[in-house]
């Protein structure tokens, strides 16, 4: 979309404000809003200034001036604002006109440019399955002398005996019993459909929605794949719509991986493939999973670099509350066709040559999608470059239920890191696959690790309520 088309959209939709948005290190969206009287062609040529020192992990106060440069292809009319508003994603530049190397969106674009320069293919396609919970109430507090959290849902298993409903009607979702039931057990059909309606109005192509496995309102909505940066933009839009529709309905949506103890957490399984023009490069009829050698090398790169990769795809301390055996969590660094206990799954049902892809099941939605998708692509390309054979490296294929293997058999399988700190250690020792291409700078990696280690420390030094159960009367 050209600048002239943007200005025409503003006029045709009686737009009163233009919201310029950018992505922080943690994947959070920040914005500055201009009235249309201040928006013209020069706005798109010169950008919108902001204070980079006020964004965590971005810039020191002595070099705080930064510029948002609008990407007109990302524009959509905001479905939630009282006054007609056009939203536009931006890339971050320095005042000297240089692309800022800590801008996640620019990193995603550089990864796409690197793919094209590599000669492997022309485009990488991504499709995330981002799960979430819809709660009716959430409360939490952390003080010097107290710490607690509490979430509640009308359909939660723990509410079978609740009286406050004015007559409990039952129809609660059992623990691990929430996969695709119909109403009245599924109490959230209409709210998910409303989310889908608005997603489609804003340009997302939605394929389906359904209740997920966990009790208390776990949900999933799948939107159509696209190229790397566009998919990351779409995921940001998706989360924005989910959270705002939930708020309109008097509920709250969270993409936190593990808000409930004892039931499935929320993941973000990521499908990816590489094309050369219109030719899919991952397909080879009759091979294992109908995957080409190039696709197998891509899997080899993903699994070989997985411990470091997970620092970007599962970048929260809460991520590792989900990555434990027994809750369909993909903790085993192996690949398999159709097997959901493997970190890398090869979908084989109703797959065409162009639909042939790999599914990395470990990530979750605390990931900054621009960083996560870029890092996945670079890990896969490193596997292609070095000819990493996942079979020779001992990554499978494993076509058994890995959770049911004996302890001796499990010893042969490498697992994901057990904590965020372990993942950051892995990234610290294995980051060349990200930096050698120039997509991620060494400064970015060092800054990211320091930023995330501080998060881990903030959790580690705080007193956990369960410690009172374990130690108070010792």
Automatic annotation (TrEMBL):
Query: What does the record give under GO molecular function?
Result: ATP binding; glutamine synthetase activity; metal ion binding
Per its UniProt record, the required cofactor names are: Mg(2+)
Q: Which domain of life is it from?
A: Bacteria
Task: Tell me which SUPFAM superfamilies the record gives.
Answer: Glutamine synthetase, N-terminal domain, Glutamine synthetase/guanido kinase
Q: Which reaction does it catalyse?
A: L-glutamate + NH4(+) + ATP = L-glutamine + ADP + phosphate + H(+)
Q: Which UniProt keywords apply?
A: ATP-binding, Cytoplasm, Ligase, Magnesium, Metal-binding, Nucleotide-binding, Phosphoprotein
In the record, which positions carry O-AMP-tyrosine?
A: 403
- Put simply, this protein is called Glutamine synthetase
What Pfam families does the record point to?
Gln-synt_C, Gln-synt_N
EC number(s) recorded for this UniProt protein: 6.3.1.2
Name any Gene Ontology BP term.
nitrogen utilization
What is its quaternary makeup? Oligomer of 12 subunits arranged in the form of two hexagons.
What InterPro entries does the database record attribute to this sequence? Gln_synt_N, Gln_synt_N_sf, Gln_synth/guanido_kin_cat_dom, Gln_synth_cat_dom, Gln_synth_gly_rich_site, Gln_synth_I, Gln_synth_N_conserv_site
Kindly list the places in or outside the cell where this protein is found, as annotated in its UniProt entry. Answer: Cytoplasm
Q: Enumerate the residues binding L-glutamate.
A: 264-265, 322, 328, 340, 361
List residues of the GS beta-grasp domain: 13-97
Which enzyme class? ligase
- One GO term of the cellular component aspect? cytoplasm
Cofactor binding, per record: Binds 2 Mg(2+) ions per subunit.
State the signal peptide span: none
Amino acids binding ATP: 207, 223-225, 271-273, 340, 354
Query: Which family, according to the similarity comment?
Result: Belongs to the glutamine synthetase family.
User: Residues that bind Mg(2+), according to the entry?
Assistant: 129, 131, 212, 220, 269, 359
Domain GS catalytic residues, every copy:
104-474
């Amino acid at each position: 979309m050209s600048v002239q088309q943007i200005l025409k959209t503003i006029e045709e939709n009686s737009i009163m404000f233009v919201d310029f948005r950018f992505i922080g290190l943690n994947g959070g969206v920040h914005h500055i809003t201009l009235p249309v009287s201040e928006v013209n062609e020069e706005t798109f040529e010169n950008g919108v200034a902001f204070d980079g020192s006020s964004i965590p992990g971005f810039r020191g106060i002595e070099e705080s001036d930064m510029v948002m440069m609008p990407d007109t292809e990302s524009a959509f009319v905001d479905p939630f604002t009282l006054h007609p508003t056009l939203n536009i994603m931006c890339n971050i530049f320095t005042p000297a006109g240089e692309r800022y190397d800590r801008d996640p969106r620019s990193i995603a674009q550089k990864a796409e440019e690197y793919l094209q320069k590599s000669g492997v293919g022309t485009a990488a396609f991504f499709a995330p399955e981002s799960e979430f919970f819809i709660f009716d109430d959430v409360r939490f507090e952390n003080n010097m002398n107290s710490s607690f959290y509490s979430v509640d849902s009308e359909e939660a298993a723990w509410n079978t005996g609740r009286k406050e409903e004015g007559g409990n009607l039952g129809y609660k979702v059992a623990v691990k019993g929430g996969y695709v039931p119909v109403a009245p057990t599924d109490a959230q059909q209409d709210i998910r459909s409303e989310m889908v309606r608005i997603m489609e109005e804003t340009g997302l192509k939605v394929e389906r929605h359904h209740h997920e496995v966990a009790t208390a309102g776990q949900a999933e909505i799948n939107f159509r794949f696209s190229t790397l940066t566009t998919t990351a933009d779409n995921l940001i839009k998706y989360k924005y719509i989910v959270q705002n529709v939930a708020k309109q309905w008097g509920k709250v949506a969270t993409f936190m991986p593990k808000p409930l103890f004892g039931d499935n957490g929320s993941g973000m399984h990521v499908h990816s493939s590489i094309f050369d023009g219109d030719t899919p490069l991952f397909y080879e009829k009759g091979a294992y999973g109908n995957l080409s050698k190039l696709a197998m090398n891509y899997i080899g790169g993903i699994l070989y670099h997985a411990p470091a990769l997970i620092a970007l795809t599962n970048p929260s301390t809460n991520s590792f509350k989900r990555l434990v055996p027994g809750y369909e969590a993909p903790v085993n660094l192996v690949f398999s066709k159709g097997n959901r206990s493997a970190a890398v799954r090869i979908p084989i049902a109703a797959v065409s040559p162009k639909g042939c892809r790999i599914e990395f099941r470990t990530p979750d939605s605390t990931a900054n999608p621009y960083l996560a998708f870029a890092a996945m692509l670079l890990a896969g390309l490193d596997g292609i470059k070095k000819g990493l054979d996942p079979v020779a490296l001992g990554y499978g294929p494993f076509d058994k239920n890995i959770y049911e293997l004996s302890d001796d058999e499990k010893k042969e399988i490498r697992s994901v890191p057990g904590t965020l700190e372990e993942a950051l250690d892995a990234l610290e020792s294995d980051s060349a696959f990200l930096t050698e291409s120039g997509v991620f700078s060494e400064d970015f990696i060092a800054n990211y690790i320091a930023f995330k280690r501080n998060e881990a420390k903030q959790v580690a030094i705080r007193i956990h309520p369960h410690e009172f159960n374990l130690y108070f009367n010792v």
